[in-house]
Design goal:
With about 600 residues, this protein is an all-alpha fold. The protein contains 19 helices and 2 strands. The two termini are about 25 Å apart. The C terminus is likely disordered.
């Protein structure tokens, strides 16, 4: 009987293993069928329509606020930067929700629907006369929008800000989920080709919005000008949903912020523990396998007070058993401690980007108002919409990126000997410097514009066109585009490359957080300048920019940027790149398999 029962149990176990292997093979085959290049038309169509809608909605919004709702310039500019800051803060929340609970697919869907509701609302408000004040073509003694009309605007902008939180951190990473990253590492050209197409499509959508949509808004009607982006956003949702059966949907793996909190709590609990030998700190390769596929982080001597979290003491229940996990609120592995150290090292460099955004957060609004007062005619019948001047920034970025790869980097390699040409920190530093030059040029152009206005006696006539070509503004737009090629791309590269492997999605959201804090500080700076430069000679007047001293504001911004560059150079000089353990493919596979076996055994038990 014992022998027969053993045989029966053996057959049951074998059948169980065969069923599990069949299930795994089925899952693997399904995963191979999902994702890949066939999903790109749907994802790119979604992103192109989304970018077209977003740019068409926001690019000319300063004109809508000042010319349709009759808001003062400073109030309108602050409104846009405040909601711009909110739109850049919500992606952090969206990334945490996607990583922890909802997953990227559903976060994108929900975010898109909320964004669409905001756009539908503001389009309706632009069509209905009772939701906007009476027209004021002279821009003198205008009736501002009522509290009710402003609240309708605020609700619309808030909905788009919340919706952006679900879109910005998830779309690019969701597209990356469709490819096997391990294979793409061996085929850099294929990966580079995908991103080339991605940014090219985004550039085309941006150009279309800055030309077609902005022209309709300025010359046809705001109802149609806002309606087109609203329709485009609806089409983006449809395109994304149509391809849902083809997508590879990665399940949420838990918030990395919980691991960081566990390290902090463990180090506080052991604040009286003395670290004698770093070699004795707790390490568990199997426990960290799923969050260190590129290699574990090595121990560093910075922020050594955090090492206490990895010291094993009585009560930590570390008994060597592979089936029992330690209490991670009491003890953390070296890799998890180093994840937190990486964040601490990155924060000073990341903060330098905040002041950069602060410095030029309002420049777009003020520059559009400058352009509106200048000669914008290309021919006798056609003049450039003020907001369309941003086309020159976009064109500079689109041309600058391939020039950077094909010309600048080979030239830099000859001098640095670095295969990458320059580091991401050096790239950011060049971007900071170019931005300073762009702001200086902005101040000089404003001095020229006001001199021409004074020469023709137009200082007291804010709606009269000053006989100076709008193309005087083009150099500063191009310089801002060149700075973006270096600074914006370098900043994102730094955050993703130097962040812990398991926090790359959150790092992308951290990049948006830079814009958020920068916009809020920009609002504070403009408000202080407006409130404390007097009524008679205010630098930033509400209605007549000719009477202001916008050039003084640009010089102030230049000074802030110079101080920020000095701060950044100090941070970059002392920054230490994260040390990463180099693993072979076989060791990676062994770690992942052991982790999977461990999960399977715990599930079976």
């Amino acid at each position: 009987m014992d022998y027969k029962s053993m045989e029966v149990e053996k057959k049951i176990v074998e059948n169980y293993k065969e069923e599990e292997m069949e299930k795994e093979e089925t899952i693997i085959s399904k995963k191979k069928q999902l994702g890949g290049i066939k999903t790109m038309p749907f994802i790119l169509a979604n992103e192109v329509c989304d970018r077209f809608a977003g740019v068409g909605f926001h690019a000319n919004m300063i004109t809508y606020l000042t010319q349709v709702l009759n808001l003062p310039l400073v109030k309108a500019s602050n409104t846009l930067t405040n909601f711009g800051g909110t739109s850049s803060f919500t992606p952090l929340i969206g990334a945490l929700i996607a990583d922890s609970y909802a997953g990227r697919f559903w976060t994108i869907i929900i975010g898109s629907i909320i964004y669409e509701l905001g756009m539908i609302s503001i389009t309706i408000s632009a069509i209905l006369p009772q939701l906007r004040p009476p027209p004021c073509p002279t821009q003198q003694n205008c009736v501002e929008a009522s509290h009710l009309q402003l609240w309708v605007l605020y609700v619309c902008l808030l909905l788009t800000s919340i919706g952006a939180g679900g879109l910005r951190p998830c779309v690019v990473t969701f597209a990356a989920d469709q490819f096997d990253l391990k294979k793409s590492n061996h085929d850099q050209s294929q990966s580079w080709n995908f991103y080339n197409w991605y940014y090219f499509c985004m550039g085309v959508a941006t150009l279309a919005a800055l030309t077609i949509v902005v022209y309709i808004q300025d010359n046809v009607s705001w109802g149609l000008g806002l309606g087109l982006p609203t329709i485009a956003m609806a089409l983006s949702i449809v395109a994304f949903v149509v391809g849902s059966s083809l997508y590879r949907k990665v399940k949420p793996g838990g918030s990395p912020l919980i691991r960081l909190a566990q390290v902090i709590v463990a180090s506080v609990k052991k604040r009286k523990v003395v670290v004698t030998d770093p070699a004795l700190l707790y390490q568990n390769r199997e426990l960290d396998a799923n969050i260190s596929s590129d290699g574990r982080l090595l121990h560093t001597n910075q922020f050594r007070w955090l090492d206490r979290a990895a010291v094993v003491v009585d009560g930590d229940e570390i008994n060597g058993s592979s089936n029992k996990l330690p209490n991670l609120w009491r003890v953390a592995t070296v890799h998890r401690v180093e994840e937190l150290k990486c964040i601490f090292r990155m924060l000073p460099v990341w903060a330098a980007g905040i002041l950069l955004i602060t410095s030029h957060s309002h420049l777009g609004s003020f520059t559009i108002q400058q352009a509106r007062s200048m000669d914008r005619y290309i021919s006798h019948n056609f003049q450039i919409p003020p907001a369309s001047l941003s086309v020159f920034t976009v064109l500079t970025v689109l041309m600058g990126l391939p020039l950077y790869e094909r010309i600048f980097l080979p030239f830099a390699r000859r001098f640095t000997g670095n295969p990458a040409g320059i580091t991401c920190l050096q790239r950011m530093g060049i971007g900071f410097a170019i931005n300073i030059v762009a702001t200086i040029v902005s101040a000089l152009v404003e001095i020229k514009r006001k001199a021409v206005a004074a020469q023709h006696g137009l200082i007291d006539q804010p709606t009269t066109v000053i006989p100076i070509s709008v193309f005087w503004l083009v150099p500063q737009y191009c310089l801002h585009g060149a700075a973006e090629v270096f600074m914006a791309v370098g900043h994102l590269e730094f955050l993703i490359d130097q962040s812990p492997e398991s926090m790359r999605s959150t790092a992308a959201a951290l990049n948006s957080l830079t814009t958020s804090f920068g916009n809020y500080l920009g609002t504070l700076m403009v408000s202080l300048v407006h409130n404390y430069t007097g009524n008679e000679h205010n630098w930033l007047p509400d209605r007549n920019l000719n009477k202001g001293k916008l050039d003084y504001y640009y010089w102030l911004v230049t000074g802030v940027q110079v101080l920020n560059l000095i701060y950044y150079m100090i941070c970059a000089w002392f920054y230490k790149y994260k040390p990463l353990e180099e693993l072979t493919e076989s060791s990676k596979e062994t770690d992942v398999e052991s982790a999977n076996n461990k999960n399977s055994s715990s599930t079976a038990n």
